[in-house]
Amino acid sequence: MDIQPATANSPAAPRQADADATKITSDYSTFLRMLTTQLQNQDPLNPIESSDYAVQLATFSGVEQQTRTNQLLEALATQFNMLGMAQMAGWVGQEARVDAPVWMDGDPVTLSPNPATGADRAVLVVKDSRGTVVARQDLAPSTEPYLWTGLGIDGLPLRSGQYTLSLESYRNDEMISLTPMEHYARIVEAQGGATGTTLLLEGGVRVAADKITALRGG
Q: Could you tell me the residue range of the domain that residue 8 belongs to?
């Protein structure tokens, strides 16, 4: 089981937060010095209105509070992200159903067809990493799982690699839909990051955790 912590939770994150806090303090001190200089050098015959100073102070204070709020939200997001990844630790080793490239190395892959309602024919379309169609295969127009063995148009096994699967649905010989084909793949790792938890599937396929539509025992 391999679970990597989020980058935002690395030792560098606290150092960055400290640096941001130091910068805010430094900026505030600079602002106060500028304000004092402005007071000392104002025209005594035409002094600056006190309301103008109040506006400047309020503006700077608002920016400072917004910066601190953003830092707090970032910290909360990191904590929630780590919590979500910890919950997904139990997913490692299980098989996920997902719409993503499929890894074929000779072992059969369980597909989860979802033909259009009313379809009387379904065709599995397989493309390689370059987008070239390397296989077309008629399937029963049902939602029953199908065991794909990875044969090409010539009937020979495809080379090991990642492939994209889609399903063409037909009614009366007219194609009515083209949809991605979901399949099951084993989860080998959960990784945290700034955008959320990513799952690493067999063959190096990466998918966002929220793209998983079903789980089953591996």
A: 3-90
